[in-house]
Amino acid sequence: MFKKIFFQSIFLNFFFTKEILAAESGGMPQLNPEFWVSQIFWLTLTFGILYVVLSKLILPKISSNLELRKSQIQENIEAADKQREESENKLKEFEEIILKNKLEAKNIFKLSREKALKDINSKREILEKQIDDELKKAEQEINELKKTAPEKINKIAIETSSEILKNLIGTEVNSSSISAIVEDLYKKHGTKYYGN
Amino acid sequence: MAANPMTQFEVYRIGPEIKIGSFDISFTNASLFMVISSLAILLIFNLGSKKNSMLPNKIQLLAELSYSFVSKMISDTAGSKAKPYFSFIFSLFMFVLFCNMFGMIPYTFTVTSHIIVTFVLAAFIFIGVTIIGFIKHGFGYLKLFVPSGVPVILLPLIVIIEIISYLSRPISLSVRLFANMMAGHTMMKVFGGFVISLGIVGGWLPLSFSVALTGLEILVAFLQAYVFAILTCIYLNDALNLHH
Question: Minimal Cα distance from A72: which residue of B?
Fold first, then answer.
């Protein structure tokens, strides 16, 4: 009885003790101080142990787990970023090389084309010169032949006509007179036959 | 008929009577559920922190989510200065939450439905916060009772009100949790009793009510644990960052 009054006076001394007792007897087991000390004791004990174990053993572990995972994820992200950058650089290098090679190929193509064109041109010039030369020579020959042709023809005409006369008459005719006639005929009709 | 809805709150001795001096510290059903709650918390969080895999399993996820939940709650309400008290608030939140939740299982005992339990917790918090306040700010902590920007005429009244509100903190904190738990459980018991007394014909209405109340009570069980923890954070914030 002393204990009951003692706890009621320290805990709820601003209430009327009688009313508390009335409430308790009216059916609120919470206001029955019989097991208050027991409850305080066990609460202190269990909560104390819970707090100590949680704060010393479990929570630091969870915290370090979380930190570790966070840092690991951060590291992985950083590594991924680095690798992406590297691959981008490589891609750029690769593109540059391709561009360079393309330019080189273009240059080589251009150069070889120019060279080939030059070769063709020079060869054509030489050939044209040769053809020209040969044409000129041929023309000269033709001209010479044209120049000499009447005389030869005249000679042949004189010879043949003297032969024919010889065969016809049976005597030799003076070749100079024949040649005079041939000359005379040539002068009269030469242009008509030789076209000069 | 065992229809008295208050019998569920009765504390009785389990095992022998243990006495230290004139104090009875016998193991009771309340002690049993305190032990069960603490062991459940330790078991879950021990399993949840045992191995650190990159992809957490369910129990590890649970432990880490509750860790970050409480951590965020503290940093949101009390700032970074409250870091050293994280373990205490975490333990407090988990203890109240598990006690509330174990109380939701039929035939169990709700530890937090006893005013003495909640009052001891609240008084410990109140005394602790007051000590922290005086250590951090010396007598400057008394400025907490003098809000800035108040007309001089009103000041005596305001100071008295502030002091009363400060001193009533442990009572409001403990009574809030205790009353919520007790009222909820009593109500469920009452509706359960109605189901029996109205029988197969009329019992369906109170039964459906009882089902709905169970959901509500689970919500209240979580909410009250959260409120208890967050109010502790707010009181701690007052002690750590004096900004009246």
Answer: B54
